[in-house]
User: What shape does this take?
Amino acid sequence: VCTLARQLEALSPRRAWWPEQPATLWLDAYGLNSQEGPVARWAEQVLKRLEHLGWSASAVWGCSAYGAALLAEDMPPGTWRCVPLTHERARLAPLPLSCLRLGRRADEGLSRFGLRHLRDLKRVPRNALQARYGLNLKRKMALLAGELPHWTFDQTEEPLCSSAEFEPPLVRVDALLFDLKARLAQALKMLAEQGRACARIVLTLRE
Assistant: This one.
């Protein structure tokens, strides 16, 4: 998934995935118009890029992150759709409970109680369900309510640039290195405060 995310870098500044939803890749459409037209054209470009890479995919946007993932998995490959947040619950209602990936035993147990679709969960008190099926169901219910998954992010980082002017003539290399060492320490501190790290240093000298 990480490799695939890097291959979509030109189409999205930030990509995310979650191990518990292995067939899903979330893409950030930051900077696009919120109207469906521009986003739909962008989604079409993403799906074409994935097809070129040998993947079949569908896309959903406009609703919660987890809801969009479940709906996209239920759609035919090569299709995309805007699902407003106000319509999300109705769209999710007919999906089978197996889409929550609770495991076979949980699915069979819920089925014995006549619970086979997401809409059926409303028929049983939430506390009773969570007490019987544990933390996994509790987490999935929280995701359905709008909580975000514990994503792993892959994003395009903006380079940190700095420039300096030195009074000529600069004849001592150690004076230059002393100044650069202080600037580098300051830059590393700034990156650390942002939760980032240094992977490469590019130094350019001009007369």
The helical segments are 2-7, 36-52, 65-73, 88-92, 104-112, 126-144, 173-193. The chain is about 40% helix and 10% strand. The mean pLDDT is 85.
